Amino acid sequence: MALDDGAIGRGIAPAGASRGAREAVDARDGGERLGGFDVRGAVDTVLTRVAPRLAAVELDTPLAADRVLLELDDSPTKSAIGGNVSVATSIACAQAFAISAGLPLWRVLSGDAPVSVPLPEVQIFGGGAHAGRRIDIQDLMVIARSAQSVEQALEMTAEVYLAAGRLMAERGALAGVADEGGFWPAFSTNEEAIEMLLRAIEAAGYVPGDEVAISLDIAASELRTDHGYRLALESRSIDSAAMCALLGGWLDRYPICSIEDPLAEDDIEGMRRFTRAFGKRVQIVGDDFLVTNAAFVEAAALQGACNAVLVKPNQAGTLSEALDALTTARRMRWSTIVSARSGETEDTTICDLAIGWNARQLKVGSITRGERTAKWNALIRAEQALGAAAFADGGWLPVSTRRG
């Protein structure tokens, strides 16, 4: 996106391996070229349909271009122009506005509202769709609750990551990394993976729960069957109530502070049951369950399902719609987490969103790989500008149980 004053903004659309059924869909070409994932058609849409409309628009706010994008396609799934078209354009226009203003994007997004440098949520083991479904749990992550700066949080996380690598090597189970940079999982049960993560926290010299807590992404929609849930690693099927009991047992035994998509996107009663039972003990995050949709967030809150939302701009299709989901969650007194995708890029806009919208938490993947470390480095630079006092430490996050 080029403005009349010469400012140029760029945006790149990420993609997800694990996708909610109701989220925005990417425009892909299909056919044989690049395995069907080519986006020449999407680029043509930008040049022939989107650009001419934007040429007549005055970019008077960072999200002004979204009005045009929503006029072109107001469907929740962005089926007319493609979610990759809309989110990349939305990001590019917001970045151009910030460059024209001579300010960081997070600053123009915040206006006069408070900002914070978000608490990192970092993957140590990848699983589910991120690791060939080698284990059923999709993400096993840590949150450095006791850190007083983002630099300290990342250093603590790096120590846990290195400790996990050493422990895996000692048992002859070190076998590369998953999609988001966490270690490839080589475990015989799902709980064994959680136990290994607990051991890695301890081996790094931290008190589990008090200093470093565990965060899980179950991605339960990926496990859904006609009759309940299938845990392929353990060759067993369970119903919704048993799934709640299984996860509840993990909450009793391990220092978990956050659990994402514990039930499937179509298991509303299961999510309500789980939230009633455990919502005061941990953060219960809706991802596929809510797909960054303000209406779904409000409905879930009124039904008593979840108490936090994962905000993925490409799930919604525009930054404006992502902001609507976040502000709706905040109105419902929920926690908010801005998130990357498994098919991530070097674009660091989600860091600006997390800071400027004061989301307080950011989920990017692991501590390795350039598309991940680009985000963490962006946070460090923002903290250097704002000061460590702006860091949203994790002391407020509840933890299911502690070990010390």
Briefly, what is this?
The protein is α/β, with parallel strands linked by helices. It has helices at 40-54, 65-72, 83-101, 105-110, 150-170, 190-203, 240-253, 268-278, 294-303, 313-316, 319-331, 349-356, 370-386, and strands at residues 119-126, 139-143, 213-217, 229-231, 236-238, 256-260, 283-286, 308-311, 335-339, 361-365. 40% of the residues lie in helices and 12% in strands.
Features:
40% helix, globular, 13 helices, two-stranded antiparallel ribbon, eight-stranded mixed barrel, 12% strand, alpha/beta
Q: Rg from C-alpha positions?
A: 21 Å
Q: Structural class of the helix and strand makeup?
A: alpha/beta
Count up the helices: 13
Q: Average the pLDDT over all residues and give the rounded result.
A: 94
Oligomer: single chain
What is the strand arrangement across the widest sheet? 1-2-3-6-7-8-9-10
Question: Which band does the percent of strand residues land in?
Answer: 5-15%
Question: Stretches where pLDDT falls below 50 for ≥5 residues?
Answer: none
Q: What is the β-strand count?
A: 10
Q: How can the largest sheet be summarized?
A: 8 strands, mixed, barrel
